[in-house]
Amino acid sequence: MNLSKRYQPSLALLTDMYQLTMAQGYWKQNRAEQQAVFHLYFRKNPFKGGYTISAGLEDAMDLLQKFGFTQEDLDFLAQVKSSNQQPLFEKGFLEYLAQLKFTCTVHAIPEGTAVFPNEPLLRIQGPILQCQLLETPLLTILNFQTLIATKAARMVDVAKGDAIIEFGMRRAQGPDGSLSGTRAAFVGGIGATSNVLAGKLYGIPLKGTHAHSWVMSFDEEVESFEAYAHVFPDDSVFLVDTYHTLEGVKKAIVVAQKLREKGHELKGIRLDSGDLAYLSIEARKLLDEAGFPKVSIVASNDLDEYLIESLKIQGARIDTWGIGTKLITAYDQPALGGVFKLAALQNEQGLWDYKVKLSEQLIKVSTPGILQVRRFFDKGTLVGDMLYSEDQTIAQPATMVHPNDPTQHKSFKESCTHEDLLVPIFQQGKLVYTSPTLQDIQARTKQQVESLHETYRRLLNPHIYKVGLEQQLHQKKMDVIVDLRSRAD
Ligand SMILES: Nc1ncnc2c1ncn2[C@@H]1O[C@H](COP(=O)(O)OP(=O)(O)OP(=O)(O)O)[C@@H](O)[C@H]1O
Ligand SMILES: O=P(O)(O)OC[C@H]1O[C@H](OP(=O)(O)OP(=O)(O)O)[C@H](O)[C@@H]1O
Ligand SMILES: O=C(O)c1cccnc1
Predict the structure, then answer these.
(1) CA 459 to ligand 3 center in whole angstroms
(2) Which of 100, 163, 263, 296 could bond 268 through an S-S bridge, CB–CB 3.0 to 4.6 Å?
(3) CATH topology of domain 150-328
């Protein structure tokens, strides 16, 4: 169920080179073990949506658990040259890497959780050299899977209980885009996939119909349906649009009748072109009139959440949505802009110095501290997320400040309940978290989306969920910014 099922054990080189050059720099300065805190977060919900679904943690855990350089990795690094053709990495540094063990403490938000901009999905605390090396692989895993899980959740939400099958492998960004994308799509709520290896690796249910080539390989369309039904009498879904869709439906009915005479039922038909609203309504009529109300209608052809919503409004009679390209590639937004920022560094007195990355825009200034996300509920409904730093006490009653407009405050009533979202995953390198099954993660996504007010779920201009900074954290952040700006002037 994890990354090593797709790759061989060592992924230590799956990082950007600048992480290794900085690592050598920290080592050379005797700062390799200096304790640091980094947060991984994004700044905008993808797809102009109102929420995001976290995904990829299990793969991230696997990466961290196996973190370590093999002799082969070190031999490769030993022959990397600097611009004057000298070895880029020093022998002593490579020896340091050879004995390196993962010793960080990691907290993360469980997969399948509704998350929002500016809140850490993951917090890593440990030797700065290790945190630095892990920036890129953690981002590549969590950014992509979170993006695809969110895309899938949006589709599942508008499909309102209809089944969704993921058909995207052929259009995915390579084999890993396909495998990790299918995993994430399942986290988001799809019911099945055509991706057989994802079925084997992750236990995702497999489903499929047949291609146009099957029909085209016969002289007559009806012969192709008969032949398929002969091989799969209880598992046939005929693709009816190769020549003329509604004529294709009539031929499917002829074969369905023959199947029934032999004690079998046709499972479904698939529409893959034309006006899917009109054709599904007409196909439904033909099937119902012929006595096949249970034969389901599958539709595919460049579908996404907007088309699903529109087709439903048009009264389309589609039972199952087959979705490929737009899901597996997150077509309208191919990347989640998650970042990984240094937030605190331990000084020689053992105290935490808060760190921020300045920007002209307040929204882009990172938040320092050792952050936790506290989610408040009013009678079960989510009312806001407050970032606070675990090394500070929280002023009571809990009040948070708008991250980009300090004049706006929000207080939470005493009667509100709360939950801290970041849970321990590793304690000083030791794994302390058991990932739920993928089915349980999917169930969590469903529960999370359903617990969001519908104003956050609509596709067009959703309401913005409130994420703020606990008052003292906000004050500390402002102090650091003022101090840095005065020093930069
Ligand atoms: N009723 C509808 N309302 C809105 N969009 C629709 C409707 N029916 C189909 N679509 C979408 O319109 C697009 C039409 O795609 P396209 O232009 O490729 O036509 P096609 O029917 O697939 O033709 P072809 O036979 O060339 O494949 C697809 O994304 C499809 O999902
Ligand atoms: O449209 P998507 O959402 O990406 O879904 C996957 C598409 O892949 C197949 O088409 P393709 O033309 O590749 O093969 P086919 O001959 O089986 O239709 C299938 O028929 C879908 O249309
Ligand atoms: O099984 C299907 O119908 C299928 C599989 C992959 C891509 N398109 C369709």
Answers:
(1) 27
(2) 296
(3) TIM Barrel (3.20.20)
